[in-house]
Amino acid sequence: MYAERRGCIHVSDESANPADTTETATTVDTADAADTTETEADGGETLGGASGASTVASLQARWESARDRELTVIGLTIVGVSLFPYLFARAPVVSDLLQGYQELASLMLVWGIFAIGFDILLGRTGLLSFGHAALWGTGAYAAGWASANITTFPLLLVAIGVTTAVVLSVVLGWLSLRRGGIYFAILTLAFAQMIYYMASAPLSFITGGDNGLTGVEIGSLLGVFDLGTELPSVAGTLLGTWRYAFIGAFLVVSVAAIYRILNSPYGIVFRAIRENEQRAEFVGFNVWRYKLAAFVLSGTFAGLAGALFTIHGEYVPLSSLYWQTSGEVVIMTVLGGVGSLLGPLFGAGIYLWVEYIVSGGYPFDWIAPYWLLVLGSVFVTVVVLFPEGIWGLIGDLRTRVATRLEER
Amino acid sequence: MALLETQGLIKRFGGLTATDDVDLAIEEGERVSVIGPNGAGKTTLINQITRLLDPTEGDILFKGESIIETDPHEVVQRGISKSFQTASIFPELTVEQNAEIAALGSEHGSFRLNFFRHQNRYSGVSEATRRTLEAVDLWGQRDTQASALPYGDKRRLEIGIALASEPALLLMDEPTAGMSPEETNATVSLIEEVQEELGLTLVLVEHDMEIVFDFSDRIVVLNRGQVIAEGTPEEIQGNPDVQEAYLGGVEL
What we know:
- Chain A is an all-alpha fold and 408 residues long.
- Chain A has helices at 2-10, 18-36, 49-90, 94-98, 102-124, 132-149, 154-176, 181-200, 204-207, 233-238, 242-262, 265-275, 277-282, 287-313, 323-336, 343-356, 371-385, 389-407.
- In chain A, helix 6 runs antiparallel to helix 7 (154-176), helix 7 (154-176) packs across helix 8 (181-200) and helix 7 (154-176) runs antiparallel to helix 14 (287-313).
- Chain B has nine helices and ten strands.
- At the A-B interface, helix 2, helix 3, helix 11, helix 12 and helix 13 of A face helix 2, helix 3, helix 4 and helix 5 of B.
């Protein structure tokens, strides 16, 4: 029941439509009535007897509704991911307007994974890291280096990238979380820049220095499907390439995983820390460890996105470790809406659209040299007018439409 | 054996000795008030017990075990809870979510690697949440955002959060500070009720002498970091050292 409301908050009904709320309230009451009979503290599933049985039933009901919502979120994500490249790159009218193309659609998903993972830290836990480029870049370099030296299997490259980023995020988090607030941001920035300079010169025999990591070689998926080729029949029209499908699958898995995390005790504790860190400690949570967990979890997705970035571009630029990359993911997340599950995906999409399409010429050639100005204006407009980002804007619009419909 | 014991607790901040060789023993079920003029070291004493501050010297025993090496969250898990001087709540969450967080803290423990486990699986939490909010009389306002509550209610929510972790010992730092007389009365009777119901041991830091003398089984008077008197309200009332400390020696 808590999750029901949480589910609403995080996933879709930011605006909590009134009908929903009453419905929730009734469920709360029945569920609670069942709970009062319960004596067993942990789980309760194992106890027999009448009270045990009703507890099991109520737990099961709650679990089922939670799972239903989970499936809805995953389902919607799958639909969105499947339709997006068609609409963006191939559909009549829409794609002409947007000037979209297949590879940019894939890139948007890659950055989207980075941004939704980053939001675990920024939006949920309230920690601003300015050093996530280190995790993204390291994931990218690890996958790239491995592809040239160990294996070319995409799945293994992803595993290698993620593992490396996780290890690094434990270290970076452990060092940076000694301090809070702005000091934490500065520490992450400092460590990330350290890694950037390490990669640019002392370690250039591995990283390729200023030239970036060339010689990346991506094999075919499971040894069968070449990532560059088109998918068969309808899938090809909708999704385009195997590469997109591969990245899209990881996006869906990421959304599902993050949804799960946010509805686990971690979700509650992260919010408690964001709201009042000292109180969270004084209700008995090990705040420091949860912050580290948030850092490592977001680092995991940064590493995943980094590895996919390498698989997507078959090249790792040195700039992937530069502080600007850290800044970009902050902007994407804020633009999309901090503290919303799917918002940062939109933030990433819009950022990249301006960066690649508006800066690229026709029909935007009159404004192309000023694409950063465009981006800045979009950012300022969104932040000032819609503090909850694009996701908040979507929520507002939906409420308005809903109330209009009800009035009729 | 005393529930809580401090042995020769010394805390120095540079040249200032905030608590100077404090020996306290608090028995189970007791209501103890710690009083003293401003700067006497009351808050410093509490902060050492909750492990927010490291003592310079001395030891703190809870249920016979030293807690000097533990972190604040471990102290809470062992059964010492604290209500803060300012209403320390989770402002942007609802009243119910506030209590839920506290209940989860006690049922779930300080940290677990369970980030894929659904929170609904912690079934005792909703029951504990309800119990807590009913105890502090806020169940009716459970869907209100905590920051929108009147000040007195915020303080009660704060006390609720402290109670939700089902402590053996509750430390209260000026629970009625900033309250209106009505709110103060309501809060005092709330504390008394809860204390009797749960068999809590209470340590109260308070400035309102009326409350202190009505409420306490025993009073500990601190001045300049030292315990200058200890006893029942009657004993303290007549103690010349206490009058000296508070009033600078003016005869009453």
